[in-house]
Amino acid sequence: MRERQPRAMSEIGVALGYPPSSATVLLKTLVGLGYLNFDRKTRVYFPTPKVTSLGDWIPSALFGSSRLLEAMRDVHAATGEAVAIGTTNDVYLQYVKILQSIHPLRFHVDEGTLRPLTQSALGWLLMSTMPDEKVDNIVRRANIATPNAAHRVKLPEMMKRIRQIRGKGYCSAENVPILGGATICVLLPTTIQNQPVALGLGGAAERIRQNASRYLSVLQQAARSVKANDASADTGL
């Protein structure tokens, strides 16, 4: 994934930390299974299209027949901001799907990124769905998982924030997790692998601030569209 170009067996072995004998067996096996192509002239390996099929089942397993991805695209089309679907993964927020911003001034977050739940607006929103005792446990464990002591949070402050989010039904924040950035997010009326799901957008703080009311409305409409679609599916409409 880092190189994205043909590589010799010796280079692959070094990158994986495998001895030559193990690397040879692994690569020959992958060639035999059709996942790698071996160019005998240049003696390099490269993935075949069969590799892309390995994850074909994941989107349907995660998102099912719900309108999650369409809702993301609706928000992206209406705002041009980075749009993300996030869910909980132990004490972390995981960005399971991201559409990157089209604005000249933007912040980039890779799909699949993990971040302690205490370190982002999406994480705070997801914690707002949990009982207080679970929030207590999450905060304590997330602090342990946060290397920079300055980024660790105090439980009373986090509980106050969580209660405010529960009252509003959405979350917004500036300079978290990225200095100069801002996020607005809402909960979606669905789950992924039995975990709560948040839909959020983010970008330059000044731009988000200027469009906050419209952006929130767009997110809320997208959340309603997911609920309406799921309800139709349940009734067979």
Automatic annotation (TrEMBL):
Q: List, alphabetically, the SUPFAM superfamilies matched.
A: GAF domain-like, Winged helix' DNA-binding domain
Query: Any idea which GO molecular function terms this record carries?
Result: DNA binding; DNA-binding transcription factor activity
The UniProt entry, under InterPro entries, shows: GAF-like_dom_sf, HTH_MetabolicPath_Reg, Tscrpt_reg_IclR_C, WH-like_DNA-bd_sf, WH_DNA-bd_sf
Keyword Transcription regulation present in the record's keywords: the answer is yes
Q: Which UniProt keywords apply?
A: Transcription, Transcription regulation
Superkingdom to which the source organism belongs: Bacteria
> What are the residue boundaries of the IclR-ED domain, all occurrences included?
50-237
| Biological process according to GO | negative regulation of DNA-templated transcription
- Annotated PANTHER family: HELIX-TURN-HELIX TRANSCRIPTIONAL REGULATOR, ICLR FAMILY, HTH-TYPE TRANSCRIPTIONAL REGULATOR RV1719
Q: What is this protein called?
A: Transcriptional regulator
**Which species does the entry assign this protein to?**
Bradyrhizobium jicamae
